[in-house]
Amino acid sequence: MAPITYTISTVDSLEYKRLICGRTDDITKLLGHISAGHSVALFGERRIGKTSLPWPQRAKWAGAITLFLLAVWIYIHVHPTSQAHPFNFPDGVVTIRIPATLEQGEQGVAVVSFHNTSQTQPYSITLSLASTDIQFKQNV
Predict the structure, then answer these.
(1) Are 113 and 94 in contact (CB under 8 A)?
(2) Do 14 and 24 meet the contact criterion of CB atoms below 8 Å apart?
(3) Can you name the residues that pair with 94 across neighbouring β-strands?
(4) What is the C-alpha separation between 23 and 26, in angstroms, rounded?
């Protein structure tokens, strides 16, 4: 089997260089590499005149990131964090957890807990909640 030979030729013309985005210096370097027989793979890796992502792809990514951040903000707004209010006593700690924010017409859950820090067992715990704007319901 006879070896196959390839021939590469270039025409160094200013008119042809202008057809390729007006980058005459880059085209001159490329033609110089090709005519000298050097590898042009390194020339392509320099990303000359290329962007990392095309604009339509950047717009898609920006839209996706914006939608994700909007979803996170909506989740945080709809599910507010709770605030814990501890009240220390000689025999323990009473903690009331309530939602950080409630708007008109919304419902929230207040969780009351007692942590006994003494050796004796308490017989009863009385908790009284009073507010002119809040209607309380007891769930045991």
Answers:
(1) yes
(2) yes
(3) 87, 114
(4) 6
Which amino acid is residue 102, in one-letter code?
Answer: L
The set of residues, in sequence order, having a beta carbon less than 8 Å from that of 12 and lying 6+ positions away, is 28, 31
φ, ψ at 86 (rounded to 5°): -85, 145
Per the model's pLDDT, the better-predicted residue between 33 and 118 turns out to be: 118
Average pLDDT of 15-23? 63
* Confidence grade of residue 66 (pLDDT, cut at 50, 70, 90): very high
Specify the range with the lowest mean pLDDT, choosing from 36-50, 98-112, 119-133: 36-50
The tokens for 27 are 């085209």
Alpha-carbon distance of 25 to 27, in angstroms, equals 5
